[in-house]
Structures are given as structure tokens and as C-alpha cells.
Amino acid sequence: MTTAPQAGPDRARTPPGRPAPRPAAPRPRPVRRFLARLLPLSPAVVLLLLFLAGPIGYCVWIAFTDLQLTGQAQESFVGLDNFRRALRDEEFLNAVWLTVVFTVLSALVGQNTLGLALAVLMRRASKPVRTLTGGVVVTAWVLPEVVAGFLLYAFFRREGTLNALLDWLGLPSQNWLFTLPVLAVSFANVWRGTAFSMLVYSAALDGIPQEVTEAAEVDGAGGWRRLWHITLPMIRRSIGTNLMLITLQTLSVFGLIWVMTRGGPGGRSQTLPLFMYEQAFQNSLIGYGTAVALLLLLVGSLFSLLYTRLLRTEV
Questions:
Q1: Could you say which of 9, 151, 162, 213 has the lowest number of CB atoms within 10 Å?
Q2: What is the DSSP string of 61-119?
Q3: Partners of residue 77 on adjacent β-strands
Q4: Phi and psi (nearest 5°) for 29?
Q5: CA dist., res. 41 & res. 111, Å (int)
């Protein structure tokens, strides 16, 4: 007794009179899919590598060499000597300290606090007052750094506007750029950069629900209690973002201080950007100046990591 051959699985599933289905086309390999997705981005990637990653990599290499602008035929690799020299240099350590003081006074205390105060007060002011105040503050912000530096130099110099006002009031005057240079340049940076913090906090305050504030008023909370227990917690993420941005901007301020004091007198207002410029272009020590720039980048990265950790916590 013979048995009929059994049909395969595909033939068994195919109804009689219909052709067998074609096998599915093979899926593209993961490498091909990746290349296909990367192809439209390749021009941007090439430009980033050429104009961003390339110069950064070259600067990192220079920081480990003894490259000079003049008097040198070819640079040589010196390893970590530039960084060791910086950590033993009293002028560098003084520049680090002045950079911290300048950043804390002008960014963390000055711009941040004044910007928040202006944003809160302008919500209660009339429209003409808001327009006038906002226009004045934003005008100081959009001025070029060199122009702002000359204006504040004319304000703080020995024969400047501030001493003229003090003489008119019968108060003692002094050469502010000589006696208190760090405070003078910090005030100048606050005057110029407060508008950014004011705009950030104005947008954040507009996002607070009105019913929350009204409920606090009904419960008898005063203005300071509403600010401390409601307003500040609800805009805490905006505060962290603003602090990170103005800190990074303040760490890189160069033109304002250069126009007002050039880091003097005696290096008492010489922050890290000015120290880096002096070593690289005045003393012709490109390798050492680039190492200082990398250390400044490290300081900015530490601040960024700190603020990023603060922003991870939800309100």
C-alpha cells in the first residue's frame, strides 16, 4: 500500500487554485540602515568636523607643546609641563581667584538677583513704566561689549560721572578703577548683562498659574511668603538654567575688563581670559596660554555639571 507524499508547510497552507506566495524580501542589514540614515546628515557632520572638532583637537594638541609665536623653529611635545607650570604660577592662581570673585559678584549675585527683582516688580508696574524700564535695561544688553566698557570707564574714572556726583553731594571721591577694580568691572558686567536674567524670569513668571497666586492671597500669604514658598519653587528650573547660562557667559568676559582696566592695576582685575591673552599673545607663549584656556574650559564644565545635577530634580 503506497502513501501519497506529504505536502510541505507552504503548499499545505495555500488554497487550491492559488499561486504560492513569494518569499519576503530580505531586510536590509543594520549597517546599511545606519548609513542610509547618516547620508542626509553627512554635510553637517563634515562641517562640524572641519570647523569645530578640528580646531578644538588642534588646540588640545598645542596645550601639550611649547609652541611660541616668535623665536622658535619648531614646537616640541612637553606633556603636562604647561599645566604643572600653571598650578605653580602665583599669577595664574590669582587670576583663578579673581575669576571666581568676578563670577560670584556679577553673575550669581548681581545679574541673577537684580534680574529676578526687576521681573517681579515689573509685573506690578504700569505699562509705561514697564516699557521704559525694559527698554533701558535691554539697551544696555544689546550694546557692544567695547562700547559698554568705554561707558563704564567714563563712569568710574577719576574725573568720571560717579566722582562728579559724589562731589556734588559732598561725599569723598576716589579713583575706583585703582582702589576697587574688581568691584568696578563686576558692576559694569551687572549693568550690561541683567537684561538677560530679567527676560528669562519674566517668561518664567508668566507661566505660573494665576489661580495658585490668588489662592495664596486668599489664605492670607503676604508678598514675601508667596515669593519664597510659591514663586521661587515653581520657577526653580528657570533659575538653574539662568544661573548656568550667565555663569558661562561671565567666565568668558574679556572685552569689558580689557577696556576698563586691562587687568590692572598690578593684576588686581586680571581674570583668566585676560591672563590667557597676556601669556599667549603678549608673552608669545601659545602653548602655555592654550593650557590656561583648557583649564578655564574645565572650570566652566564643572559649573555646568553642577547646574545640570540641580536641574535633574523635579519641582
A1: 9
A2: HHHTB---SSS-SS--B-TTHHHHHHHH-HHHHHHHHHHHHHHIIIIIIIIHHHHHHHH
A3: 65
A4: -70, 155
A5: 39
Among candidates 173, 137, 143, 170, which has minimal Cα distance to 157?
A: 173
Chain centre distance of CA 185 = 19
The pLDDT value recorded for residue 315 is 42
Helix, strand, coil % (nearest 5) of the chain? 75, 0, 25
* Separation between Cα atoms, residue 228 and residue 146, nearest integer Å: 38
The pLDDT value given to residue 95: 94
- CA torsion 141-144-150-155 (nearest 10°) is -10
- What digits encode the pLDDT tens for the residues 227-279? 787 888 888 888 888 998 999 999 989 999 999 999 988 899 999 999 999 99
Alpha carbons 56 and 62: distance in angstroms, whole number: 10
How sure is the predictor about 14, in pLDDT bands with cuts at 50, 70 and 90? low
| 232-to-120, 224, 229 alpha-carbon distances in Å | 11, 11, 7
CA distance 276 to 274: 5
How many alpha carbons fall within 13 Å on the CB side of residue 201?
Answer: 29
